[in-house]
Amino acid sequence: MQFKTHLLSRNLIALSAATLLATSAMAMGQPEYKAAKDQISADYKVNKQKCDALSGNAKDICQKEAKGIESVAKADLEAQYKPSDKTAYKAREARADADYAIAKEKCDDLSGNAKDVCVKDAKAAHVTAKENAKVAKAAAKPGETATEKAAGVAEARKDAAAEKNEANYKAAKERCDALAGDLKSKCVDDAKRQFGQS
Question: Which one, 27, 95, 100, 191, has least CB within 10 Å?
Answer without folding.
Answer: 27
